[in-house]
Amino acid sequence: MTPVLEVADLKTHFFTRAGVVKAVDGVSFKVARGEVMGLVGESGSGKSITGFSILGLIDPPGRVVSGSIKLMGEELVGLGEKAWRDIRGRRIAMIFQDPMMTLNPVLRVDTQMIETLKAHIDISSEAARERCREALVQVGIASPDQRLESYPHQFSGGMRQRVAIAIALLHKPAVIIADEPTTALDVTIQAQILAEVQKLAANTGTALVWITHDLAIVSGLADRVAVMYAGRIVEEGPTQDVLARACHPYTRGLLESLPSRNPRGRPLAQIPGMTPNLLRLPPGCPFAPRCPAVQADCRREPPPETHPLAGRRLRCFHPALDEVAA
């Protein structure tokens, strides 16, 4: 399928007094129409910075230093602020972790949604209100006319996040970047929102990049998953293939630390050590100091990207291919 979003060798660095932080260091992936891609990793792996880079939201001292971001074939890297204002919200939208980053607490919901529409298209207030009403119904909000006249503080956390998703859908964008939008919600509301989002992606054809640290969410939501570590994608492939037959030691470590993967009464497996300081990355593989399969070559140089299995990408000198084949 032709990709809606194509990211190639993206590098986003932060130039600080202490040195250069390579927050995103050569990330590449593609997302097709109607596809959900999960971007997974520990805190500090570069997931959110990747999302902000795609939307042109990197502030100094950070900047995209190289690479390509194409939206339906159009290059976004290097665009001016005026061009970005036309793209953000209309062609690429973002759902933030905290819905109150999206919603203004002193304005009614209808005011905020109508302003979002009028910022990009010439539309009457009546037509805009009707589209807002349809968007609320689309994300499963009952009594939409009453809810449009409410303020954000009158909603529960789950309802506020649904409103934020509805705002993201107003312009029927080609791509939505979702930055851990269900982290602060209880599991029941989380499950409802995930089901709604998956249905919306399928029905509207919107490509969705879902940023999370939760592999359980990815397993039921994403078509493909990309696992990030220290600013790089270390493993990518179809979700069920990666979760059932992980090849990279880091991916295997994340899976083995899940309670569902461990027998009752046995302590949870852990990945030893801490994520590396991006100011002082080791000369070889960034995961080498924590890796149970580390060898001498892992400490000499970063592993190149390989394609050892159909539809899979890896950055590892010694992946668990024999175990996967068995």
TrEMBL record:
One Gene Ontology term from the biological process aspect of the record: peptide transport
UniProt cross-references to Gene3D superfamilies, sorted A to Z: P-loop containing nucleotide triphosphate hydrolases
Does this entry carry the keyword Acetylation?
no
Listed GO cellular component terms? plasma membrane
InterPro entries xrefs:
AAA+_ATPase, ABC_Ni/Peptide_Import, ABC_transporter-like_ATP-bd, ABC_transporter-like_CS, Oligopep_ABC_C, P-loop_NTPase
The cellular location(s) given in this protein's UniProt record come to: Cell inner membrane
Xref: SMART domains: AAA
Q: Which PROSITE patterns match?
A: ABC_TRANSPORTER_1, ABC_TRANSPORTER_2
Q: Known Pfam families for this protein?
A: ABC_tran (PF00005), oligo_HPY (PF08352)
**Top-level taxon in the UniProt lineage:** Bacteria
| Every ABC transporter domain range | 5-255
Q: Which UniProt keywords apply?
A: ATP-binding, Cell membrane, Membrane, Nucleotide-binding, Transport
Q: How does the protein's chain sit in the membrane according to the entry?
A: Peripheral membrane protein
Q: Does the keyword Cell cycle apply?
A: no
Its Gene Ontology molecular function terms? Answer: ATP binding; ATP hydrolysis activity
Family per UniProt?
Belongs to the ABC transporter superfamily.
NCBIfam families for the chain:
oligo_HPY
Q: What is this protein called?
A: ABC transporter ATP-binding protein
Lineage, highest ranks first: Bacteria, Pseudomonadati, Pseudomonadota, Alphaproteobacteria, Hyphomicrobiales
